[in-house]
Structure formats: structure tokens, C-alpha cells
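FW: tagging you since you asked about this chain on Friday. Here's the raw sequence from the shared folder, copied in full. Didn't touch anything.
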Amino acid sequence: MHIEYLIIGQGISGTWLSYYLQKANKSFLVIDDNNQNAASRVAAGIINPVTGRRIVKTWMIDELLKHLLPAYKKLGEEIGINAISQKNVIDFHPTPQMKIAFDERLKEDNSFLKKPANARPNGSSGRENIFSQYFNYDFGFGEVNPCFLVNLQEILPAWRKKLLSANQLQEENFEIKELRRMEKGIQYKSINAEKIIFCDGAASSINPFFKNLPFSLNKGEALIIESSEIPSTHIFKKGMMLAPLGDNLFWIGSNYLWNFSDDNPTDQFRLQTESLLKGWLKVPFKILDHKAAVRPANVERRPFVGYHPVYKNIGILNGMGTKGCSLTPYFAKQLTQHLINERPLHQEADVFRFQKILSRH
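HL: got it, structure written out here
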């Protein structure tokens, strides 16, 4: 088999890269083992335009939003699903200090922060707000608007089905020891390709070509709960995020474990999260599932995009961390244009910025 591009991984990065290469009528094959513990398959798909304790705008968010909303809508139309929906975050302040931080930030920049008129603590005088019958909270709440929820639970399998029907996906574990660099292109088993692009998340941290990149892997966990009484109109936050998945199902997470020995769920997370839910929710719920995954985060919190500075037929689209749903459509399209038309990549994302460390053997 001879193709132009071999893509390793069909998480959010491999999905978007293959989507744009297909749009450009390029020949490609995706190799993916359908690991259900992959980060893209465990994530909720939340796009939140603010971050951190200071509630500042996330990197490039204004530009990203202009691109990703029409991109998800178009992808959804092609695979017959609702790919993205606006679900603003109701941020219940867990402490007086966090309320003050939100209010101060709101005075500085209200482009994404709102303070609903009826955002009073439970039990305060005046008209109760619409969330007081579902949640316990003591210090009021703010709203982050707009936020979005990407339907990863349907996007990834639907796009996979489309790739399989077009013979553009091979379900197997990629074995890097079988990869050969040729004078023009690469060879993998019986596949000859002009380029190979690694979109394989945490696996790239041990890839001999990219292991020197400053990956900072962390493990995240989430519970899937069922409740017929929690509203599905918003994403709710009180220390953790509670996001609606449809059919009375909700995702709650996540944590950041920097020291871990495997990607399995932990009893500690389940117990802590169940305790949080019992104190936060006024309505009954049932835990249905517990998931965990290792995120391909990195020290700089900027993506890894582009060709290896030494091996020009080997590329990467990775390092999205917790921002995969917002960053990937933009940078997958930019990488596609770079691959085909040699258009420049964003300097802060171009993996060429690590030329020195990637040149070491």
C-alpha cells in the first residue's frame, strides 16, 4: 500500500487531521488500537474560555472560537450528529476568597464572566435562584459565558466508522520498532507513506523521535453518574466540573495526578468525588462508571505541531493537555496547510522551537 500520510492515533487530534486531509483529497491511513482509556475517550469535551485561579482568558481563545464553532458544526452535519452545543458554566464559589477573585476579575474583564442577578447563596433573603433546589452552596455563583460542550462520545466513533467504511483506518496497536525511514518517506510493515504524523497522545512521550519534548503527563479521572433531576442546561462547577452527557447522564471530574504508576481508576478519587457530590447535590444520583486516562500535557502548555527538525518526513500533532477540543481543530487545519502548501505554523506551537533538544540522539 502506498499513501501520502500515515496517521498514528484517532483521538481528537487524529480525527481532525484525517478530516482535513480528507477534505484536501489526500491519501492517508489511520492506525489506532481503539483504546478506551485514551484521553480523548475519557474527556468530557468542555471548552472553557477562562482558566486558573485568576480566571484569565485561555491562550488564543478569541481566535480559536471563530474557527472551532463552524468547524464542529460542519463535521457534525457530515456525520449526522450534534457535535457541539453551548453549555455555559455555572461556577459555584467554593470559598469566600474564590468569590472575591471572581468578582475582582469581572471588574477587570467581563468578556466571558457574568454575575447573574439572582446569584445569591442558599438561604439568603430575596428570591431564590433556579439552582438552589438542586445544589448546596454558600457563597453564590458566577457564570462563564459562552462555554461549549463537544460531543466526543459520538464524534469519535462516528468518524471512526466513516474511516473504516472508506478503508482509511486500521485497528491495531502501532509498533514503532516496525517503522523504517527510507530515502523518500517511511515504511511501516507493508505500508509505504510519504509522511508519518504522530497524533497518539501520551504515547509520544516515549516515542524515540519525540521523547525529548517537555511532556508533563498527568492522569485524570472522572465518574459517570445518572440523575433524572440535575438540569442539563449548563455545566456546573464547584471544585470539579459536572457536565451533561444526555439521557440523564453526567460526567464529573477531574483531578490531576502527577505521580502515577498506571492509567487505572483509583479508589481514592471515587470516594472523594462521591463525598463531594453528596455534599453538593440535593438530588439523588447513581454512579455508573469510573474512568481514567493519561493526558498528553506539557510544561509550556502549548501544542506540539509540525515536522521533526531532523527527520523531515516525521511529524507530530500533540501536547494539547486539557484543551484538546478547543486547540485541535485550529492546529489540525494549520498543520494540513503546512503539509500540503508549506504555509507557516504558529511560532508558539511549531515543534521546530525544540530544534536543539530534538536534535540530540
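FW: Helices lie at 12-23, 39-42, 61-79, 96-108, 152-165, 267-280, 324-341, 355-358.
HL: agreed, and The CA atoms of residues 214 and 301 lie 10 Å apart.
FW: great, closing this out.
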